[in-house]
Each structure stands twice: as structure tokens, then as C-alpha cells.
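>> received
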Amino acid sequence: MKKAPQMTVQNLDHLGLVAGIIDQIGIVEKINEIVGCQPGEIVSPGHAVKAMLLNGLGLVSAP
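>> returned
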């Protein structure tokens, strides 16, 4: 009899799905293309928008 492979379960809630869809659609790249990046930026505008979306969805009681 074959032994079943080791499996792990992770709880991503809805934020993992939203982050995956944002990456799949390419929102970060599109925003960076439209707005542009400035020299010396640590975080691109696209990543800032992605972080704001995830923060707003994740902290429902206290955004």
C-alpha cells in the first residue's frame, strides 16, 4: 500500500485570494506604468495601492 504524501494546511482567508487576483490582473504593474516611479522610492505606487486595498479589507473593525 502506498503512503499518502505529507500535506500542510494554511488559512489564507480572503486576503490571500484578493492578493492573488491583484497579481493575476496586473494592477501593480499598470499603476506603476501610469504613475511612474521616482528615484529613491522604497515602495512603488502600485505596491502602495495593493497594500491599502489589503489593509482596508483585512481590518474591518478598525482600518
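>> The chain has a mean pLDDT of 83.
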